[in-house]
Amino acid sequence: MRRESDDAGQICVLHLQYEKLHKYCNRCFRLTHEAPACPERARDQFHHREQRREQYEKREEEEKRGKQRSTREDRGKAVTFRRTTQEQKRRGPESMASSSRPKPVRRELLSELDASGVNSTLEKPSTKKWVSKAFSATFGKPVKTGRAVDQQSPMPDSRRTKPKAPWYRDTEEEAAMANEVAFQQAKWAAAFQSQASEEQKVGPVGISDGSGM
Fold it and tell me: Is 77 inside a domain boundary?
């Protein structure tokens, strides 16, 4: 029994009658059977079983493939190891020892490097020789050094065929010599100018002293 009011405000009484159902499926919402005996449940279970079987089979196949790959790699490594051991046995123990030991530095290379360093140090002339060669070439007179006198005439260079600028130098030695010569010439010119100025200052004083006597 249930009471309700309508839109006009009148109270209506409803008599409801409930009947208990013995068989009712919560899965497919049917009255013919209950949930444990539902045919759709069996289908779903079968479908889930098939999926599980497929997954299990796939896992087994992947595991088999991984094992086959690992066995192949192990076989390849074993074959390469056997080949290397056989080659080492053929070559002998000396080759194995030489390959395992660190290789020493070649003495020939060290001797060549030492010889080249000595030659380079010996071949470089000193600044005195550069200056003496430059002045002997320009003035044609020997220049006295501290211990000996070097007199060398300029040798014509047959390689120079094309005319070049006066400031151009073929090597670093020639450039250094030219710089030394220019420096010495400027120094001597300054010294000559200072001597000439001193002589001019001293000259008239001496003449005046002679006339006074």
Answer: no
